[in-house]
Amino acid sequence: MIGVTLYTSHTFGQVSINSETPHPSSILTIAPTDLKGQYKGTILSPMTTSQINNIPNPAKGLIVYDTLVKCLKVNKGTPTVSQWVCIKTK
User: Fold this and answer.
1) Distance between CA 60 and CA 57 in Å, rounded?
2) Which of these, 54, 52, 57, 60, lies nearest to 76 by C-alpha position?
């Protein structure tokens, strides 16, 4: 007979990478430094325009990097009718 033990814990849905305390207003917190204390950046899903357009049911607000247009794009549409636009700065 094989026994199975289940463990449960209280979580608040926040995930952190290289950080012990995710920010309470964030679902994902990524520390700006690696384990050696060196500052690092984050790469957000680099894809071609064609690959982006082939994401099935992309969430509204999904962010990707378009390697052909060279911009961060956000889906301002819906999962069924996506509308990818470049995020522009002033």
Assistant:
1) 9
2) 60
What is the predicted pLDDT for the residue at 9? 39
The per-residue pLDDT for range 9-55, each reduced to its tens digit, is 345 677 878 777 777 777 878 888 888 889 888 888 899 999 999 99
| Interatomic CA distance for residues 19 and 4, integer angstroms | 31
Handedness of CA 43, 48, 51, 55 (dihedral sign): positive
Query: What is the DSSP pairing of strand 84-86 with strand 71-75?
Result: antiparallel
Location of structure tokens 């247009």: 69
Residue type at position 71: C
| pTM of the predicted protein model | 0.69
Asked if 83 contacts 76 with a C-beta cutoff of 8 angstroms, the reply is: yes
d(CA 83, CA 58): 10
